[in-house]
Every structure is written in structure tokens, then in C-alpha cells.
Amino acid sequence: MFEKLEAYLEEISHFISGPEERKEILSEIRSHILEKAEQEFGAVTDVSLDQVITAYGPARRVAEKYLDGRPIIAPALKRFLFRYTALLFAFHFALTVAAVVFVKKSFIFFPILYVPSMGPFEALFYLPTAFLFDFGVVTLVLYLITHGKKEVKLPWPKLSVDLDEAKPSGRTIGRIIGLVVMTTLTGAALYLYARFGTIFLIKLGSGEYRPIFTPDAGQWYSLILIGLWALGTISLALKLVTSSPWIDAVKAGLSLVLLGLVFRQPADTALAGRPSDNFVFWLQLNLTIIVLIICILVAVDFVKALVRIGRRQLAK
Question: Which range of residues forms the domain containing residue 17?
């Protein structure tokens, strides 16, 4: 028993999955090393094995050579990876919205989905984790199918994000016009904020402009809206020079964070003056619904961008 050789083979085994495949590869490597030690040094000793192992290379590199051409997920299943992930995440997203708006308590959707009790702001940070979980579940299933011995025929769902057929929207002229509009809008908002401390103003008759919200709430909502417009302006400018999906992903991700911050400001104390309780209730309800709808639309763009990034990485 040569301890150096066994330790080397043990390290190589860490990078090889599948007991039968691992046993076959390790047996082949052992035979090659012993044969080479005897041919080059005349005898198999600890010293000769040490030199042969050193020349053989690091354990990980050796394992990669033997595993070359054996993908974790079969190439024929790569399209299923993102289609199934998008479909599962859409279901996960619907459950999250239900938990926030209707159920308002944690629940389990057997056998894999757990949706905790949370508010709208917490949900925005829960959803990226949910996406990674869904991606991991689909990856594990496809891995098992790839390395299984049975032929499995997977259904091809029609209702999911199919980015192979999706074309980037907007032409250069449209983006330039959009950039001009967004730049003007953002600039005007910054001017109003610098002058009044808020962009939410109202003018009654011939009087002066008056803020709609209290100073703290007006600042809070104004900065969020200016931030969203600034993100739109920057993304349009970047799209004039590159079509990278990372632009959409970063924009959507930051937009979700900003939209989540809306819920950090209590709506019942945000209005200036003394509005009635009934008015405050309906305002808060409408604001919540509008922001959630916007969040859903932005989240869809976010998922599309992430899937497009993943497809590009797999295509390389």
C-alpha cells in the first residue's frame, strides 16, 4: 500500500461524481501511475511514485481531463433549465403575492415551497432568494435525469419565458427620444426638489404651490421617484452603446429595491393637513395596489434579464 498514491487518488475522487464512474477512473489512473513509475524508474517505490504524481499534475486538473465532454446537464436539456425555472418562479412569485396581499401568513406548498409571512418590502428581498432556489431545484432534477439510466421525456410547457424568440425592443431612434424625455423629466424633478424639497406639489387657484405630503414623506417619495427616473435615464444611455442584458438586470434589481422603500414610509401619516380616516384608507390601499402592480412588471423584466444572462453564459 502506497500512502502517497492512495492520498492522491482520494483527492481526485472528490471531483468525480457517480460511484461506478469514479471507481473506473481511479482504477485507470492507479494503473497508469504504477506502470509509469516502473517503466521510468525500474521499480515502484515511494520516491518514484512521488515524482510520477508530481508530473501527473494537480488532482483537480487530472479529474477534469477524464471528465472532459461529460457535462453536468446534457446539452439537450439546457433549454429546459431556464424554461422550467421561469415557470416554477412564476408560480413561486404568485404564491408570494398571495402571501403578502391575501393570506398574510406563512404557508407550505408541499413538497418544496415554503412562503413565509412578510410585508411588501420583505417580499422584494425574498424573491431573488426564491429565484435561486427554483433554479437550484430545476438544476438538480436535470442533473439526475442527465446521469440517470432511464430515458425521461420531459413536457414542453408553453406558458413560460422563451427568450430564444424574444427580440430586444426599441430602435436606436426610439431610445434616443426616450433618453431625451427621461433626461428632461429627471432634470425637472431635480430642479423642483432643490427648490421645494419635494416634487409632489399642488396649486389651488392662484395661490402658491403647496406640498401634498409632509416634509419627511415628501422627501422620501421624491427621492425614490427621482431614483427610478435616473435609473431609466442611465439604462437608456447605456443601451445606445451596448445590448448587454446586465443593464436590464441591474436596472430592474435596483428598481425593485427603490419600490420596496415606498412601504417604509407610513401612508397614514404622509399627507399634509388633516385628511379623513376614510380618505387615508383608500389612499393607502390604492398606493399599495399600484406599487405592487409596478413591482410585478419590474420583477418580470428582472427574471427575463437573468434568464437571458444565463442563456448567454451557457451558449459560450
Answer: 3-67
